[in-house]
Design brief:
The structure is a single chain. The protein has five helices and five strands, in the order ββαβββαααα. The protein is of the alpha+beta class and 154 residues long. The protein has two domains: 75 residues, Ubiquitin-like (UB roll) (Roll), CATH 3.10.20.30; 68 residues, [2Fe-2S]-binding domain (DNA polymerase, domain 1, Orthogonal Bundle). A five-stranded mixed beta sheet has the order 2-1-5-3-4, sandwiched between helices. Helix 3 runs parallel beside helix 5.
Length: 154
């Protein structure tokens, strides 16, 4: 075991865990931040997406020892009141059905819009491609990303 001092959602958090523990399990099991979901465990589905220094990152295969001083943002830390433009657009377009993938979808979309506030349809599809939605709400996801883009740029 080792102690890691993490910057999670703007707060310093000390955790005593095995250095190879994936960040997903540190967040869920040690910091009680359960918005980030376990999906496949192989970084293929996107349910575990968080931001590391603003970049969408799959947390299920990322060892906590590799984070260092980088800033971790989870769905809980995206906005204090759940009013990030992407979150608001998700509600406006009634995107979730089962909701399981939505935290990862939202985190991927927010990272895309931070990097590219006016993405084309093709850029949205490329950025969201690795996030699997079993319910198939891809059309609403794309529409919500477009709405969030417009609201960011309004």
């Amino acid at each position: 075991m080792a102690t890691f001092n993490l910057n999670v959602n703007g707060k310093k958090q000390a955790v005593d865990v095995d250095p190879e523990t994936p960040v997903l399990w540190v967040l869920r099991d040690h910091l009680d931040l359960v918005g980030t979901k376990f999906g496949c465990g192989m970084a293929q589905c996107g349910a575990c997406t968080i931001h590391i220094d603003g970049t969408a990152t799959r947390s299920c295969i990322l060892p906590v020892s590799s984070v260092g001083d980088q800033k971790i943002t989870t769905i809980e830390g995206l906005s204090e009141k759940g009013d990030h433009p992407v979150q608001k657009a998700w509600l406006e377009h009634d995107v979730p059905q089962c909701g399981y993938c939505q935290a990862g979808q939202i985190m991927s979309a927010a990272a895309l819009l931070k990097e590219n506030p006016t993405p084309t349809d093709e850029q949205i599809e490329t950025a969201m491609n690795g996030n699997i939605c079993r319910c198939g709400t891809y059309v609403r996801i794309k529409a919500a990303v477009k709405t969030a883009s417009k609201n960011l740029n309004a």
